[in-house]
């Protein structure tokens, strides 16, 4: 028997403690009207390595990186000590035993087998409660008649108010503030007695961390919060000397100390069990804003309460993931896709709809910046609020919302507009997406206050300053204590509110962020192709404005201390701009000379984007420059901006955008639009500069940047769309030439990265304003491509390549050193061994690890998309046998193959034990790419098309015969409609056609004997009027 299996929606590992260590987490979803808790676990000891609320500074069990958690969790985490007929034993402890790990979507559990006792532990988070909590369910099963003394719980728990810094650096001092309250209720409430800052003002601490244990008789077990009772002087925590050495009666009578020492969270009891008899209890560990409130709410903490919450924890995830259902002959593939959907929304959020004045607000809940034990460098944030959502990075959130439209179609246009209007006039964008806030005008606010009879001043102040749904729900719940009524008030308030996106600069400008907006555009038009014209010319967006600016070449091209010409210190905080415009710390949008926020239609926004990115082409017209301190997707190439790096991935997407513009002009050439004069003049200057080369184009760009640095000219130019055809065509031809030259440079395989060496330069008499280095003017450069990378070819194949081009490029990739033949995986690049450290930290990494020549799964999946989109179906299906996670060997992969990872160590890594092993769990762009692949495979590239003023719906499955079970597969579409695909021939479907559609609604059924469905019926499909569509192939 394999020591892993999938059963009843769980991935099961036998003897998990002997397998490769891995780190993962519970999703931290408490439902829309619950407050979440973050919980991390490893497959060592009793799993839970750290948990808490909000961030690392509010942990009940302190946050620890993965490699240290593998060592420490068995001792400092949850422990179970028992005496079976007087003989001590620790399930999951040092004594070896047979153990099982079961991983569910919202729970994790373990079982330990002893000759006299079976011990099972299950963890899940509280759901739909107004406070966060981790629930631990412990069940003992006697294999013979036994007397059982139990001591179970957490070896170390931190009181509320103890930050991560204090936990790691000042724990010895911190205990001076610790205290435990409420022990008379058998529910210890642990907090600092006061604030701990070295300040003249000292405040009280009301909130506390707590735990309580309730058994199957709804009796609260005795808490043991003093670890010295348990361990005596065994501060190594290896053995419970105190518990083992004492009789149970003496042990529970000992006085406990609650001050000047670290605390524990154990509970104890003594029971008699007959053979095959069970004994179960639940322990809740959480945080509450005050003790009185906790004691009031805890009256509901019965055994039945926890049983119901266990069910709710499962139901909330099942409900949340219902929009993605796929059924094939491979259940592991089906379960993998559902897990990918869950993990995708953890990074991008799930789009909930609230009624607005003119339709719907789209509000993403449950998102957070990717941070866990393997990404310990990130300061993750899980908002401890109703309708919880956290911060995220522009690229991450954008990518992970790409497929929203396939589940909540109203989110498509919202996402596109939200991200495209964060593009600044200089072409850059803020890094951090902080989510949405809502605002009421004075009239609407006053009407609502009167209508809802709101008298609480704090509630009114919240309505005045702007708010999130969670803040409003909390106020409404506080005054009504009724969730339905609170939801009603929330909906009424949001319906009258305006929604804004909050964002902030972050840490820099990445050169690739803008390209993901083209994916949002593509997906929107896959569902709404008939809305293209109205989207382009009726929808308006703004230009984000940052407090940061970018130096022109005359300052940032410098001679470093080693005498080398470099591009350094490109960005600066523009205090003049801040002062002149009165920029706020929060989100700002560009204004014109009349102090009005600039708004343009989406065509103009994309037109401007093409201009600013075209003007960012490198000296050879091949790659788009990394001229603002940051590289593109691959963060570990952080040295490239200094050595004048550029990227072809971005150029490929520029070419794609320019061709879109060309097509739109061709289709809607009779339209007239108003383009801001500054943008129009910028276009003219670019076109005039093109014959004169790089420096003239850069002069035009820097002139535009300076001209619009503060405000835009309010004037606009009224143009016929057709008049823009020629300049767009000129730019297309220019970019086309650059791409062809790049292919030659890569010997047929398009390079991903180029670097440039300054050949002819002279000091210009200026100093870098901050670095004080001599600045130079560079007259000429020498180009050098880096070794082959997967990224640019993947983008080329998915966006531009013909089938013949893609086939040729795929063969070149296989021969380039990118393909790991032993594992059947694609690496980020060929060998970097001959490169210098100047390209970035990737060169310093070990081969086959992180971004250096390992398999970054999300980029590999982009390449798989390229294979599929270019029509190389046989090559695609051959590649996924080894390159797609659900088809890998879990014992090699080292974790559940239902869960994605960021990278897989490849065969070139010096540690053979890691070959094929996955690292950095789940919160990755891989989930988005997996969902994209799923819908390409089952539905096709363009489910809806618009031709000759007719809306069509067409399913174009490209599936291998082995995916069909009894001649059929099924997939859910638009979140509600089940599409069943029948394959009577039981053959590959690459060349099969659709013979018939059966459209089944609640009241009517239609049969369409054609390869597409058109007009009203297609519209009805889009409006989700059919619960089932049966598609017959032939």
TrEMBL record:
SUPFAM superfamilies: Six-hairpin glycosidases. GO terms for molecular function: hydrolase activity, acting on glycosyl bonds. GO terms for biological process: carbohydrate metabolic process. InterPro entries: 6-hairpin_glycosidase_sf. Keywords: Glycosidase, Hydrolase. It comes from the Bacteria. This is Six-hairpin glycosidase-like protein. It comes from Acholeplasma oculi.
């Amino acid at each position: 028997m394999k020591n892993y299996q999938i059963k009843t929606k769980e991935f099961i590992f036998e003897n998990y403690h002997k397998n490769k260590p891995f780190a993962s987490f519970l999703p931290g979803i408490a439902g829309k009207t619950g407050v979440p808790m973050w919980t991390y676990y490893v497959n060592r000891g009793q799993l839970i390595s750290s948990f808490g609320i909000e961030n690392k500074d509010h942990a009940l069990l302190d946050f620890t990186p993965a490699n240290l958690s593998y060592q420490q969790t068995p001792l400092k985490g949850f422990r179970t000590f028992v005496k079976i007929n007087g003989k001590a034993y620790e399930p999951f402890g040092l004594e070896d035993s047979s153990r099982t790990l079961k991983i569910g979507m919202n729970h994790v559990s373990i079982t330990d087998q002893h000759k006299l006792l079976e011990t099972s532990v299950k963890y899940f988070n509280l759901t739909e409660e107004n406070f966060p909590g981790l629930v631990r369910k412990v069940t003992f099963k006697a294999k013979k008649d036994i007397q059982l003394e139990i001591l179970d719980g957490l070896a170390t728990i931190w009181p509320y108010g103890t930050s991560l810094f204090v936990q790691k650096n000042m724990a010895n001092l911190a205990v001076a503030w610790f205290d435990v309250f409420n022990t008379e209720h058998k529910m210890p409430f642990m907090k600092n007695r006061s604030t701990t800052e070295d300040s003249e003002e000292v405040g009280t601490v009301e909130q506390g961390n707590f735990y309580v244990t309730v058994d199957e008789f709804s009796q609260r077990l005795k808490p043991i919060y003093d670890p010295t009772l348990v361990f005596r002087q065994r501060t190594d925590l290896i053995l419970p000397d105190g518990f083992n050495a004492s009789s149970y009666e003496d042990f529970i009578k000992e006085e406990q100390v609650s001050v000047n020492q670290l605390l524990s969270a154990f509970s104890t009891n003594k029971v008699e069990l007959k053979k095959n008899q069970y004994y179960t209890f639940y322990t809740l560990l959480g945080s509450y804003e005050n003790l009185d409130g906790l004691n009031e709410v805890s009256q509901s903490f019965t055994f039945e309460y926890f049983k119901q919450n266990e069910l709710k924890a499962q139901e909330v995830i099942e409900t949340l993931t219902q929009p993605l259902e796929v059924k094939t002959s491979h259940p592991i593939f089906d379960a993998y896709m559902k897990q990918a959907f869950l993990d995708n929304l953890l990074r991008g959020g799930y789009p909930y709809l609230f009624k607005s004045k003119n339709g719907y607000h789209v509000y993403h809940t449950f998102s957070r910046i990717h941070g866990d034990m393997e990404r310990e460098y990130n300061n993750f944030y899980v908002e401890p609020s109703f309708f919880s959502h956290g911060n995220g990075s522009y690229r991450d959130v954008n990518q992970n919302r790409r497929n929203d439209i396939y589940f909540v179609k109203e989110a498509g246009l919202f996402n596109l507009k939200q991200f495209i209007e964060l593009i600044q006039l200089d072409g850059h964008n803020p890094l951090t997406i902080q989510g949405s806030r809502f605002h009421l005008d004075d009239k609407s606010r006053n009407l609502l206050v009167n209508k809802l009879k709101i008298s609480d001043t704090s509630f009114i102040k919240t309505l005045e300053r702007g708010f999130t749904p969670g803040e409003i729900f909390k106020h409404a719940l506080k005054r009504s204590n009724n969730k339905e009524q609170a939801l009603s008030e929330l909906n009424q308030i949001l319906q009258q509110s305006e929604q804004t996106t909050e964002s902030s600069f972050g840490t820099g400008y990445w050169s690739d962020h803008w390209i993901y907006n083209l994916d949002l555009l593509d997906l929107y038009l896959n569902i709404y192709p008939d809305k293209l014209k109205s989207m382009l010319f009726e929808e308006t967006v703004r230009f984000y404005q940052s407090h940061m600016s970018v130096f022109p070449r005359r300052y940032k091209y410098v001679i470093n201390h080693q005498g080398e010409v470099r591009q350094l210190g490109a960005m600066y905080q523009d205090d003049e701009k801040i002062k002149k415009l009165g920029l706020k710390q929060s989100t700002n949008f560009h204004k014109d000379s009349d102090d009005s926020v600039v708004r343009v239609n989406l065509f103009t926004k994309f037109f401007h984007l093409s201009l600013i990115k075209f003007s960012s082409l490198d000296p050879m017209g091949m790659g788009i420059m990394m001229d603002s301190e940051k590289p593109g997707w691959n963060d570990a190439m952080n040295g490239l901006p200094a050595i004048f790096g550029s990227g072809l991935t971005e150029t490929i997407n520029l070419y794609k955008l320019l061709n879109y513009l060309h097509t739109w002009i061709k289709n809607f050439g009779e339209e007239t639009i108003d383009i801001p004069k500054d943008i129009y003049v910028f276009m003219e200057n670019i076109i005039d500069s093109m014959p004169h080369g790089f420096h003239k184009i850069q002069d035009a760009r820097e002139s535009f940047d300076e001209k619009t640095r503060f405000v835009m000219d309010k004037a606009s130019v009224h143009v016929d769309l057709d008049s823009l055809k020629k300049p767009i065509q000129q730019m297309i031809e220019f970019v086309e030439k650059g791409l062809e030259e790049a292919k030659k440079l890569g010997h047929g395989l398009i390079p991903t990265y180029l670097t440039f060496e300054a050949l002819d330069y002279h000091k210009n008499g200026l100093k870098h304003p901050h670095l004080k280095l001599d600045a130079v003017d560079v007259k000429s450069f020498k180009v050098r491509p880096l070794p082959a990378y997967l990224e640019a070819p993947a983008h080329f194949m998915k966006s531009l390549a013909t089938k013949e081009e893609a086939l040729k490029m795929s063969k070149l990739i296989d021969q380039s050193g990118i393909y790991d033949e032993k594992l059947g995986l694609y690496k980020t690049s060929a060998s970097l061994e001959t490169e210098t450290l100047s390209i970035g930290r990737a060169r310093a990494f070990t081969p086959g690890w992180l971004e250096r020549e390992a398999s970054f799964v999300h980029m590999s999946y982009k390449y798989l998309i390229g294979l599929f989109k270019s029509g190389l179906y046989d090559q695609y299906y051959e590649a996924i046998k080894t390159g797609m996670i659900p088809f890998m060997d879990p014992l090699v992969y080292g974790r559940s193959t239902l869960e994605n990872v960021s990278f897989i160590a490849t065969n070139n890594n010096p540690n053979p034990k890691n070959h094929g092993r996955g690292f950095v769990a789940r919160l990755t762009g891989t989930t988005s790419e997996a969902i994209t692949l799923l819908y390409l495979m089952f539905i096709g590239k363009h489910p809806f098309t618009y031709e000759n003023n007719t809306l069509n719906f067409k399913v174009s499955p490209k599936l291998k015969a082995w995916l069909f079970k009894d001649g059929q597969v099924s997939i859910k579409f638009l979140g509600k409609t089940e599409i069943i695909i029948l394959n009577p021939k039981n053959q590959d479907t690459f060349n099969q056609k659709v013979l018939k559609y059966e459209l089944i609604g609640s009241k009517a059924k239609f049969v369409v004997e054609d390869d597409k469905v058109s007009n009203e019926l297609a519209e009805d499909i889009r409006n989700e009027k059919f619960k089932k569509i049966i598609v017959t192939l032939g």
